[in-house]
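sanity check this record:
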Amino acid sequence: MIAGFVMLRWGIVATLIWHYTVDASLVGLLLVRSNSLYFKISGVVVAAAALAPLAFGCISYLTRSGFETNEDLLNRAARPLDAGGAREPVVESRETASRRYDALTPAMLGFLAVCLAVGCVLAWRFKPETIGDYLRLSTDSRSARSTADQLMRRRSLDPGAYYHATVFADIADPVTNEFLRQRLGTTRVNAIYAQLVPAALWRVRYFRDSQPEEFAVILRPDGTLHSLRHTLAEEASGASLTKDEAVARAQKFLSDEKKIVLKDWDLVDSASDKKPHRTDHTLTWQQRKALDDGSSSASGCAAAAADHACARIEIQVLGDEVTNYRTYIKIPDAWRREHGERSLVRAVVSFGVPTLFFVGLGLTALILFLKNLKSEAASSIPWKRIILWSLSGFAAYVLILALGDRLPNFLNAYDTAIPMKLFFGGLAIGALLGGPLYSGAIALLFGASWYFAVKAFGQEGLPSWLGMPAPYYRDALMIGLGGTAGLLGLERLLAAASTHWPTTHRHLDVVFGQDFDAVFPAAAILGGTLLRGLLLTGLVTVIASFIAAYVRQSSVRVLLLFLGTLSLVGGSWGTSADFAKQFLARLILLGVLVFGVRYLMRFNLLGCFLVVAGTSLVTGAAEMLAQPDAFYRGNAYAVLLMLALLFAWPLAAWRFSSMNVAASNASPGGFA
């Protein structure tokens, strides 16, 4: 698809250079990975040669201050001529660049002011409790790494001799969450996760290149030790204890190290694994009193036919080493199987309708855009301006990659059976491809948006971010403030209303927040906000412009609204009542968005971006402010500063444009 777009836009020569560069680079990387010095040198030569046509093209572009126009090599050479002669190429005129903007009416501005006030009140008054609200981080990723290093040294291990990855792990099971919510309620579930069975933990992994032996230090949110995990190679030597000896060692560990009263727990499962030079044992204890048993009896989980949620402890004895302690919650298998069943109706609603809707709508828009790429409307697309917008997305991607949590999570997923250099090579290739992929997606979205907007509304096209009249920035500021507050308040209101209509979900995800394990959470939030804002703004504009250009019947638009709502419901609903509730909530939210785009945003790209970015920054700042750790609170203040600067942009542009207009009118020759 990308190769076809390059060929249609810039011709066969650019496509050949691109194709040769990619192929030569891949061949060179394959040869460099060889163990033969001859092949490695050949790979370096091939990779260097791959840069020759690219360098030649760059030099030619710089010397000519643009691409060379060779009609014999461009696709438009085959374009038929009009009866009156050759058609002049369509260029973006000065009038188009400084096109007229229809400002919002005072009534609409007043409505946005009401949305701002009401949204703030709703977001402040309605705070429905969710699973995960209990989380309070007293330590950050750096402190967790420092604590883990000290624990490794106590075991006479040098942490500097290992690669490491520090991640904040969400280990809660969505199905278990829903079972507990039905039996106990959200408040009690949060108490269990906070005090008995942690649902989120810090994990600091220590590993070496291609060596199966590794360690992991698991810390609670307050920074205290939860467990030490040790992975041994199959051939590693060790003791071969009997089951009774292993149980005795594990019981001593639980009593002395974990301060667990064993009389309240039963050994319910044990497994022995004979290795070549040792015997490993996996032991599981279950608490006698059920978590969801309201009585004072301690036999809830001990009953053979118990239908309860039970706390469990699993521990391993590797040779004679007691390690790999973990806690989890066991729910009835019958309940889990029942909620895991998929009927034909559920499969159609969960997968069939969303796939047909999103893929069908997306492919239709893409085919129409590419098919008419040589039309007059497509020729007016300001690709240079759009490429500058996409470069902002590339910068955001680099920011996320460098200061976010991508690298720690990739390292945490590293399989020691793979050589480290091969892993880093794949990681580097993925990183190099990710940036251009995001940039290309942003450019494609805004390019298609421009084309469909021209088809629907004439040569107005889409406005820019800069150089617009003062009313544009005033409206963008009000759209950003009113839209952000209105959406946040509406989400809180819908969440609070859903608690008064209790239904059974299929599963329920826990809500902890994001970017806690990022190198600098504020930078990661900023990069994610910028990238998400550009993509969603492009997506909103291309959908709105496509529907305005090709879907003019009101009945078809209503049908698309209902199909879109049905696609957003997905497969998380449990019963028909739950499906109805989720469908209604998403219909309300999507209807509000459609109204906002149709009557408020219109062609105000900056306003749409401010709404997306504002909601993201407010959510990120709230998550960080809720934590007692000073590092996260400092990042929260940095995010709030970004939020203030974001909305200061349209405010300053509005005032500056107003002063320029006033000065122009007051100058000689100006309008009175």
Remarks:
- The longest strand covers residues 265-274.
- Confidence is low (pLDDT under 50) at residues 78-98.
- The chain is about 60% helix and 10% strand.
- The CA atoms of residues 469 and 657 lie 6 Å apart.
